[in-house]
Amino acid sequence: MKTVIFTQRVDIIEAYNERRDCADQRITELIKFCGYLPVPIPNKLNHEEIENFIGIINPSGIIFTGGNSLVKYGGNAPERDFTEHVLVDIAIDKNIPVYALCRGMQFILDYFAQELVNVKGHVAIRHELISDEKIYSGREVNSYHNQACVKLIPGELETLAKTSDGVIEAVRHKTRPILATMWHPERESVFVSEDIDMIKNLFAEGETN
User: Fold this and answer.
1) Which terminus of the chain faces fewer neighbouring Cβ atoms within 10 Å, N or C?
2) What's the whole-model pTM score?
3) All domains of the chain, ordered by start, with CATH?
4) 108, 85 Cβ separation under 8 angstroms
5) 199 backbone dihedrals φ, ψ, rounded to 5°
């Protein structure tokens, strides 16, 4: 069975002096629904260990999940920032598809030198997408974020969808199989077919690597 690696958030449990890697179980359900075996990657590996992990698993894709702000924007999980930075480096080098959601999209934006700003009215609501792409246009999606990008500077990313207030909701790399959305496909009570197709089509690009 082909595999997909997913990143994990860091939860800090002060009562036990623990920093725990974790992820919503719906992430694994989403990956399985797309036809892949989900494999979580720990946040306390060094660069060489991450490279070895990727080599052993040989994933068809990588999912960057939600949770934790970037340290640059007030977060407290530098180990996760490091892990995801190395993963993007490797994904670009090996042409492994990447799908990033919510915090994951924030990370992708920052990696490619795009600025995040604080936004209002984007937590625990649903809103309609504005896009020239049929798979996104008119869709109603969930929203659980306080930071986002409202304008891309010229570079390697292109905007796929926005909301009516100008917040960018989806981007894609112009030449690499890297796709990111601010919404959470795994948080839908029933997975949305457009999201499933979006992920499967992206990861199909990695199956010939």
Assistant:
1) N
2) 0.95
3) 3-204 (3.40.50.880)
4) no
5) -70, -45
